[in-house]
Amino acid sequence: MNPSPSQRSGRILLAVSGGIAAYKVPELVRQLTKAGHEVRCALTPAACEFVSPMVLQTLSGAPARSELFDPGEEGEISHIELADWPDLVVVAPATAHVLARMTAGLADDLVTTLLLATRAPVLVAPAMNVNMWDHPATRENVGRLRERGVLLEGPVAGELACGWEGEGRMAEPEAIAARVGLLLSGDAWKGIRVLVSAGGTREPIDAVRSITNRSSGKMGFAVAAEAARRGAEVVLVAGPTALSTPPGVRRIDVETALDMEAAVNAEFPACQVAVMSAAVADFRPAHREAKKIKKEDLGPDQGLRLDLVPNPDILAGISRERGDRIVIGFAAESHDVVEAARRKIARKGCDLIVANDISRADAGFDTDTNAVFLISPGGEAEELPLLSKAEVAERLLDRVEKLRGVAR
Ligand code: CTP
Q1: For residue 124, what are the domain limits?
Q2: pLDDT in tens, 366-387
Q3: Domain boundary among 183, 218, 234
Q4: Which residues line ligand 1 (CB under 6 A)?
Q5: Which of 153, 183, 213 is the last residue of a domain?
Q6: In angstroms, rounded to a whole number, what is the distance separating the alpha carbons of residues 66 and 124?
């Protein structure tokens, strides 16, 4: 079978570590070569206990190596040349131990040396006992590897070779091979639906007056445009703004926070990524007068007292329901930006907060540039330089790709 036209075949370095799931690796090699990829295999010493290098060598048509300093093998192609060779490294199965060694940057055998030396993207297919996968050490290692851009396929839930049931089975060879095809074809956003909220909301007081804020919607529109450019299906829920709809984006116009909440909640279940950049009014008038409030009805020199009631927190609401979707929030802060955003991400429960310093003249509301921090749930803060909003959108979507486990 030839690869489909959108799929590019490439050079795959398949690193095999020592778990029972290694018995599926010959099938993975077969699938990858069938799809037109060139495959070379490297094994940890423990992997050789589970799968024969001779089988992998025969199926891949290239020497399968397991020794770091074997004179014959090094003469053929040095381990550094082998690390430089692939378009993509696939670690399958990736044991808890190999993930821990990758996290620590150890290079104590051929496989970990290749993983440290390579500059190619790395896709890991973990396979282990469910309790090992759930262990805080593995959780932490996987989190750190993801932050470094390591991609994951699986593990999936099911019956495990050790007798336990749960998450820990290696993804099937077909799924790994399909993911490899997707990564090499650059179609990372194909079929991905992204929901973006943008702009401020307008909370009516009477027939003509309303409470609103200075949000222009430019940041959210830039995110929507960039996601569409990358091939995602984009739904943009926009508060009142004069901006034009970016090409390829489906737009839903809303006015109030309650309208925005209804539109976001309706679209969210069918989306894989949500970027909530709207400046939602936190309060709305408790009563909306249908007619214009007349000063003469208030009496001479009388002020107007408004009762405000809180609006729902749209971001916190969808974060609670997110499952495996990625949810990104924004934070408009005028002081203690990073600290305030750290508290906000803990409160809202999303995957990332983009924090703006709105006290700056060149960032935040109604500017073309932005200076932001990307704040992770653990509190880590990455400061981006002053960039155009389009560039901030690019950097943000690069981060989303990492979070989704799809590298560029
Ligand atoms: N947000 C929301 N619903 C609200 C208020 C905010 O979904 N009722 C979302 C915004 O879209 C943004 C994030 O929450 O992604 C943070 O908004 P921000 O105005 O910075 O924070 P608030 O929650 O309003 O907190 P505070 O005003 O106290 O800073």
Answers
A1: 11-183
A2: 788 999 999 999 999 999 988 8
A3: 183
A4: 197, 257, 276, 278-280, 282, 311, 313-315, 329-332
A5: 183
A6: 18
